[in-house]
Structures are given as structure tokens and as C-alpha cells.
Specification:
Elements: H1 3-21, E1 31-37, H2 43-53, E2 58-64, E3 67-76, E4 91-94, E5 109-113, H3 123-131, E6 140-147, E7 150-159, H4 163-167, E8 177-180, E9 214-215, H5 221-233, H6 244-256, E10 271-275, E11 281-285, H7 307-311, H8 325-331, H9 334-353, H10 356-374, H11 382-387, H12 402-415, E12 426-431, E13 445-451, E14 457-463, E15 471-474, E16 490-495, E17 503-511, E18 516-519, E19 528-531, H13 532-535
Parallel strand pairs: 1-6
Antiparallel strand pairs: 1-2, 2-3, 3-4, 4-5, 5-7, 6-7, 8-9, 8-10, 10-11, 12-13, 13-16, 14-15, 14-17, 17-18, 17-19
Length: 537
């Protein structure tokens, strides 16, 4: 082998090995190391000034797990989590600040959270891990942050919800896109309603939205106005411009896990809205460091809720609150209310009853214990860190232990009258397949679902693949449309792809007199699948 060939193969082999061993930036079981180099003297004062008086960024370099990127933008971020002169402020790092093509693993922006008012250090990482099982939500893990070779502390690394994020979730980068976090100290413009925050209350004038929503796309105010108008005046038509299921999952998550620094709390905030390629707005949950009862103001009484009130938060809280139309208007529709309650039931069954919450919280704390011990700027003592899952921490803010809160919350929800109805479950799925040695090919998806517990209606949601929008159709148990025997709790559907596709992703919504259920329960990320090739084996 010639020398240059050997060198070439060696370099390629080394490059591929390096790529294969590079850790995923958001691997939840990996604590990354981010090292910033900032050449300006007294950079903390410069960052404080930028945060208080304007925008802009300091230019510096960053090393992420040993990979160097030059000339990135650096600034402090956060509202209540930022503090003047604080040694452990949250950070925003823009990798493509100077070099517009610069990125790390397709990421162009980093958001580092200081886990304000979370002595456990797991609320945000655990919360987003749970959320991603049921809805579109950012990835999240831990990182050790160094500035000029000095260890600043253990941070939470949350995936930035930006144009790259929405593009990965069925949207174009130029689609309408909003951040819904009101500027609390900014007064409403003349003629506008006061203290409505980002609650999606209808205002015909876009100027009324300016203090409460940040437009992240080139245009979109008219579309936001139309969303709020339909929500207030024609809620029966809202599914044409709003992803109902994603919205109900977000609201259910906020309620079950007492995430009140959100739309569901006093100040409707901490979520994003983008319009997907199907023309529907999708909410994306954000900022979970105050979940699990760390923020206590639900907006239902004038003061913060105590521990017992947090544990017994009504699953239908705000159902009559005109200042929370995303809750009151949607839940006024029976089908949406049933879907919402089904999501609440699944969240506490899959996460709390299963012991997932307790086990995962313990695993995360064990993983971060050493870097937390070494954190020179940690807000809470190691004693508080150790007891934060099972006991209240603090005498003033009184942050509930996560398990202390959720153990009794589970008991309350299981006894709640709104959640006692049992759904109709799909017990068996079967398909019409080609007869043994038969010559005739199966060309349609003929699906049969056996269902228990007195079903009244079954709806199938189906699509060729994840880049397409779900279509819906009724399944039949009346002896027609391919159903063999009427009223035997065996529902059928025949979906004709018209030669346009040969695979099908689907899930089934069951409804009885008391509630709604879903098959499979993993339908958000793992719908059922079948192909014509399988049916013709």
C-alpha cells in the first residue's frame, strides 16, 4: 500500500471513530462539559449590563466535551432566575453568532438553566423527560460549566426552542412562531385589557399582544388574533387551527405535576406557539424548574397555595375561568374534556403509579451528586439536596419534596369523581390478510378492534408516515362497512390507500358514556403500524 493511501485511510478511520464516540449533547445519562473563554476583563459586569439595559452578546470561544468552536455569542438569560451580581446566572450561548454556519450536532443555540428554586436539581430534567413521552418538548440534561477554566457550577442544559426545533417538528423555519412569556413590568397599551398575560384572550388589535407575546417569525400577528378570536367566539371550530391533542397534553401535564409557572397558573406564561405545516398552532411547554409545586400561585385565590392545596389541585381548575380560554373554552366541549381527563389518568398511571417518578428522580440525583457537591456556587446545601425528594425545603419559599407532593396527589386524583370512569379498552387488533396460497393481493387496510367496557364510538386516526397529518374515520359495529356482526363490540374499518401508500400508522380513540381511551397508549411517539406487505405474506 502506498504511503499516501495509508495516511488517508488512517485519517478517515480516526475521523469516523471520533464521530462515533462523540456523546449526544442531550444524552440524559451524560454530563457534558462546557468551557467558555471570555477575554474581556470584568466580563460579569458587562453581561449584567447587557441583561439589564439591552441586547447584544459578548464574543468568546466555547469547548463542548473537548470540541472547540470560535467566536460564539454569550449573554445572561432568564427573568426571575437572573440576579444582578449572581455568580450562577443562567446563560444563552449562540454558536452561530458570528459564523452563521457554525453549529454543534445541528444545534446553533444553547440555553443553560440554573435550576432556580429547585433544591433537588431534577425538576427540569425529569419534567422534560416525562413531557417528551406525551408531547412535543425539548431535550434536556446536565452540564458542568467552566468560564476561563474556573468551575462555575452544575447547570441544566435545555434544548433551545427555535426555528431549528420547529423544523424538526413538522414546520418550516418561516412558519408563524411565538414565545409566550409576558413582560410582567410592562403596562398594557391604552384600550387593551389588563393583566391577561399570554392567556390567548381575544384582542382585535395586535398592539394589545405586544407586552405578552414575542414574535419569532417575520409575520404572524393576524394569525394569532384569529386563533384567539376562534377560541373565544367559535370554539367548536378551534380544531381547524389548533392541535387539540398536543394542547390537552400540555394542560394535563401542568395539572398533574403542579406546574403552575405555566399557562395553568396565575400568570399564563412559559410556552411557545408555532404553526405547523398542516396550518395548526402547536404549543410547546417550557421552563420546568418550578414544576412539582415550587411555584404555588394558581390564580384561584389571592395567595400561594399550601402543600395540601397543591396536592389536591382540582383537575378541572379554571374550567369556568374566562381569563383562561385555552382551558375554559376547550373543556366546555365534552369530547375535549374527556380527552383531557384521559390524559391526566394516563400521566398518573404511567408515571406515578408505576414508580417511574421515584426511581428516575433517584437515578438522576445519584448521577449528579459529585458535580453538585463540587459546585462552588450551589444555592442549596447538600443536606437540602439529599432530602429534597421527600421533604419540604426552606422556611420562606417552602419548596415541596417531589415525592412528598406526588404521593398524596396520586391518592387525591385516584379518588376524584372526574377520573373514576373506566375507558373502553382495545383488547385485540386483527387484520384481513391474504388467504394461504391465495393469488388475490390485499390492497386495503382492513382493521378489526375487539373492545371491552361498553364502547359507544371508535375513531381511528391514520396517516402514511409521521410527516403527514392524521386523518380520521369512524369504525363500525353495525354489521355494515365490512363489519360481520352488529353490536358484538368488534369494530371494523376498511382504509383504501388508492395506491398512494403501502404503510399505515394509526391509533384508535375509544369512547363510552363516561370517558375516552386510546390504543396504543404510546400513540404520540409510537403509533400502531401495519403494511400491505405484512398483510400479503
Amino acid at each position: 500500500m502506498k504511503l499516501f493511501q495509508f495516511v488517508f485511510l488512517f485519517v478517515m478511520s480516526y475521523s469516523l471513530t471520533a464521530q462515533s464516540t462523540e456523546k449526544d449533547l442531550f444524552d440524559i445519562n451524560h454530563i457534558s462539559e462546557i468551557k467558555l473563554t471570555i477575554k474581556q476583563n470584568k466580563y460579569e459586569s458587562i453581561l449584567d449590563s447587557m441583561k439589564i439595559y439591552g441586547e447584544g452578546m459578548i464574543v468568546g470561544d466555547i469547548s463542548i466535551d473537548g470540541k472547540l468552536l470560535k467566536d460564539v455569542g454569550i449573554r445572561y438569560r432568564g427573568n426571575s432566575s437572573y440576579g444582578f451580581g449572581n455568580k450562577r446566572n443562567p446563560w444563552h450561548i449562540k454558536l452561530d453568532y458570528i459564523n452563521k454556519s457554525q453549529k454543534y450536532q445541528d444545534i446553533t443555540s444553547l440555553k443553560l438553566s440554573n435550576a432556580l428554586r429547585d433544591p433537588s436539581m431534577v425538576r427540569e430534567v425529569l419534567g422534560f423527560e416525562i413531557a417528551r413521552k406525551f408531547m412535543i418538548a425539548p431535550r434536556c440534561n446536565y452540564t458542568k460549566l467552566y468560564v476561563n477554566n474556573k468551575y462555575i457550577g452544575l447547570y441544566v442544559n435545555v434544548e433551545s426552542i427555535d426555528k431549528n426545533f420547529i423544523e424538526k417538528n413538522n414546520a418550516n423555519k418561516d412558519n408563524t412562531f411565538f414565545k409566550c412569556s409576558p413582560e410582567l413590568e410592562t403596562k398594557s397599551n391604552p384600550g387593551c385589557k389588563n393583566k391577561i398575560y399570554a392567556s390567548l384572550i381575544y384582542e382585535p388589535d395586535a398592539n394589545c399582544f405586544l407586552p405578552n407575546y414575542t414574535l419569532l417569525s417575520e409575520s404572524g400577528w393576524d394569525e394569532l388574533i384569529e386563533l384567539t378570536r376562534v377560541l373565544e367566539q367559535e370554539p367548536a371550530k378551534i380544531s381547524s387551527i389548533l392541535d387539540i391533542d398536543q394542547t390537552l397534553w400540555m394542560l394535563a401535564f401542568n395539572n398533574v405535576f403542579v406546574n403552575l409557572s405555566s399557562y395553568s397558573g396565575k400568570i399564563s406564561q412559559n410556552y411557545y406557539l408555532y404553526k405547523n405545516n398542516f396550518g395548526k398552532f402547536v404549543p410547546v411547554i417550557w421552563d420546568l424548574n418550578l414544576a412539582f409545586g415550587s411555584f404555588k400561585n394558581a390564580g384561584v385565590i389571592a395567595k400561594d397555595l399550601d402543600l395540601k392545596q397543591l396536592q389536591e389541585l382540582d383537575p378541572l381548575m379554571h374550567i369556568d375561568n374566562t381569563y383562561k380560554p385555552l382551558i375554559s373554552k376547550l373543556l366546555s366541549i365534552k369530547e375535549f374534556r374527556f380527552m383531557y381527563l384521559a390524559h391526566i389518568r394516563q400521566l398518573y398511571e404511567d408515571i406515578v403509579i408505576s414508580d417511574y417518578l421515584e426511581k428516575r428522580a433517584g437515578e438522576l440525583q445519584k448521577m449528579i451528586r459529585k458535580p453538585y457537591l463540587d459546585d462552588p456556587n450551589k444555592e442549596y446545601s447538600v443536606i437540602d439536596f439529599d432530602k429534597s425528594l421527600t421533604a419540604t425545603v426552606g422556611t420562606k419559599s417552602k419548596i415541596p419534596g417531589i415525592l412528598e407532593l406526588m404521593d398524596k396527589r396520586l391518592k387525591y386524583l385516584r379518588k376524584n369523581e372526574q377520573l373514576k370512569a373506566l375507558p373502553s379498552d382495545v383488547t385485540k387488533i386483527s387484520y384481513r390478510t391474504r388467504a394461504l396460497y391465495g393469488a388475490e393481493q390485499i390492497k386495503t387496510f382492513h382493521i378489526t378492534a375487539d373492545v371491552n367496557n361498553f364502547p359507544k364510538k371508535l375513531i381511528i386516526y391514520y396517516r402514511p408516515n409521521s410527516s403527514q397529518e392524521y386523518k380520521t374515520a369512524l369504525m363500525f359495529d353495525d354489521g355494515t362497512n365490512g363489519d360481520e356482526v352488529a353490536n358484538d363490540s368488534r369494530y371494523t374499518i376498511d382504509i383504501d390507500p388508492m395506491g398512494k401508500f403501502d404503510t399505515l400508522q394509526y391509533y384508535i380513540q375509544t369512547e363510552n358514556s363516561g370517558t375516552i381511551g386510546f390504543y396504543p397508549t404510546t400513540y404520540v411517539n409510537q403509533p400502531a403500524k401495519i403494511s400491505l406487505a405484512e398483510m400479503n405474506k
